[in-house]
TrEMBL record:
Major place of residence: membrane
Annotated source species: Capsicum annuum
Protein name: Late embryogenesis abundant protein LEA-2 subgroup domain-containing protein
Localization (cell): Membrane
Gene Ontology terms: cellular component: membrane
Length: 267
């Protein structure tokens, strides 16, 4: 640029000036922006559809297994019901009946030793009968365990009866001697027993029979099934001397309960 004396200015023809808009920013390439950044989250493709597809397949397979399991159980129950119905129609099975005929108290004595221990000594004679009311079923009993108990579940005497077979429409007489020798009673049992002995109608008691039985139908034979026979409604007067007393029986029929509800039949 040259300055003339008159104060005017001139521009160099070879020199050009450019003006830029201050509001427009110039974009430049920065190679550092493409460098590795450890805090940057890498791109991962969306695989949600595949996972959802596998989950649906697993649930579908599980539902099918449940449906087939329920169907198989239902078919087994239906077949079992049909078999039971056929068996009942052919054989008309009935539980054996038990009844108590008599209970004689020969000895009933409480003794207290020097160490303040009270002991019980008893002897009972019991007679029962059982009847097989079926026409085609045979009952084979294991040895029977008999127990006499008070109304408060205090054991008064025990005994047993040998095994036997009950044929159709047969009546078997069970006669057994129950006894107990010098059984020590605790304070609560002694107090309860003395209270029952003061009852006017006599000492309330019951007879329990526990055994197992096998049921046979022609060539078909069951596994052993546990049963319990309960004979209650018995009141016995305590003998005061050597003469035995005969207990009064208000309900001679006994209750029969199966200890195992499901029978597994074997050929």
């Amino acid at each position: 640029m040259a300055t003339k004396p008159n104060g005017t200015t001139t521009t160099n023809p070879t020199t050009t000036t450019t003006t830029t808009n201050p509001t427009v920013k110039k974009q430049t390439y920065n190679p550092k922006s493409q460098m590795y950044n450890p805090n940057r989250i890498p791109y991962r493709p969306n695989r949600g559809r595949n996972h959802r597809g596998r989950g649906c397949n697993c649930r579908r397979y599980f539902c099918r297994c449940c449906c087939w399991t329920i169907l198989v159980i239902f078919v087994i129950l239906v077949l079992a019901a049909i078999a039971i119905a056929i068996f009942y129609f052919l054989y008309h099975p009935q539980l054996p009946s038990f009844s108590i005929s008599s209970l004689k108290i020969s000895h009933f004595h409480l003794t207290t030793s020097s160490d303040d221990a009270t002991r019980l000594t008893t002897k009972f004679n019991v007679t029962l009968s059982t009847k097989n009311k079926n026409k085609k079923l045979v009952y084979t009993y294991d040895p029977i365990a008999l127990t006499a108990k008070s109304s408060n579940q205090i054991e008064l005497a025990n005994g047993n009866f040998p095994k036997f077979t009950s044929t159709p429409n047969n009546v078997t007489i069970i006669h057994s001697t129950l006894s107990i020798v010098s059984q020590v009673l605790d304070v609560d049992s002694l107090t309860s027993l003395k209270s029952d002995m003061k009852t006017k109608s006599g000492l309330p008691m019951k007879i329990l029979l526990d055994t197992k039985v096998v049921v046979q139908m022609d060539k078909l034979k069951s596994n052993k099934v546990g049963i319990r026979i309960t004979c209650d409604g018995i009141n016995g007067q305590i003998p005061k001397g050597k003469n035995p007393t005969l207990a009064s029986i208000t309900s001679p029929k006994c209750k029969v309960d199966l200890r195992i509800k499901i029978l597994r039949w074997t050929f």
